[in-house]
Amino acid sequence: MGRQQAGRDRHRCHVLGQSPAQQPLVLDTASITNLNVNGIVKIAQANPKLDLGVIQPPKLADGEQGEAFGGAGPGLMINKDSKSKDLAWQFIEFMVGKDVNLQYVQSFGGLPVRTSAADSDYVKDSPVLQAALQAFKQFVPNPNVAGWVQARDTMDTYLEQALNGKLSTKDTLAKMSTEVDSVLKKSR
User: Fold this and answer.
1) Residue 151, C-beta contacts closer than 8 angstroms, at least 6 positions apart
2) Range with lowest mean pLDDT among 10-19, 51-60, 176-185
3) Is the pLDDT at 146 greater than 90, yes or no?
4) Which distant-in-sequence residues (6+ apart) come within 8 Å of 86 by Cβ?
5) What is the DSSP string of 61-112?
6) What is the pLDDT of residues 78-108, one digit of tens each?
7) How far apart are CA 157 and CA 78, in angstroms?
8) What is the mean pLDDT of the chain?
9) Is 155 in contact with 178 (CB distance < 8 Å)?
10) Total Cβ atoms within 10 A of residue 115
11) Rounded distance, CA 161 to CA 187, Å?
């Protein structure tokens, strides 16, 4: 996707893998980005004076509430073929315990998995976490579909081109649709 060009492209909207102090929002070389909760929390910590807002998923043309696909989040899982399911379950119970989970998510700026943590100072003192909690009802987990990551990255590439004025909306949707369909077809 050309992430190495991010620092040179003033209109870049999506940058991953950089330290928070190097993010275009912090450097004032971008006005919008697409990040997960902990990325936004880290940017707020890197520049507390930055006036950050979090856009809620917009309503669709018919008035139906829009949704947002979630990326990496506070999920833990046990593989179906695990030979230590009981031990894995004990670990999950430990990690989602109120105190441990709160301590864990604070270490990386994440959103706690327990609703009771919404009353913690960590959540109450963070406008970013408050906005994320408001939008949480509209979060949809990433689909468990072969080829999803490649399809998502393909969409990201075309959307970036549209946002930078390199493709029209019509061309973006046509090319993106064709390429994503091809990715998903190869993944079956």
Assistant:
1) 145, 180, 183, 184
2) 10-19
3) no
4) none
5) TTSPBP-EE--S-S-----TT-S-HHHHHHHHHHHTSHHHHHHHHHHHT---
6) 888 999 999 999 999 999 898 999 999 888 8
7) 33
8) 80
9) no
10) 9
11) 25
- Report yes or no: 126 and 146 within 8 Å, Cβ to Cβ: no
Name the region of 153 (left: φ>0; alpha: ψ -120 to 50; beta: rest).
Answer: alpha
Band of pLDDT at residue 174, cut at 50, 70 and 90: very high
Q: By CB neighbour count within 10 A (0-12 exposed, 13-18 middle, 19+ buried), where does 25 fall?
A: buried
For the cut 90, the answer to whether the pLDDT of residue 177 exceeds it is yes
- Token output for 18: 């950089």
CB 37 within 8 A of CB 129: yes
DSSP-assigned states of every residue in the chain? --GGGGGG-TT-----SS-GGGSHHHHTS-S-----HHHHHHHHHH-TTS----PPPPBPTTSPBP-EE--S-S-----TT-S-HHHHHHHHHHHTSHHHHHHHHHHHT---S-GGGGGSHHHHT-HHHHHHHHHGGGEEPPP--TTHHHHHHHHHHHHHHHHTTSS-HHHHHHHHHHHHHHHHHHH-
Residue type at 34 in one-letter notation: N
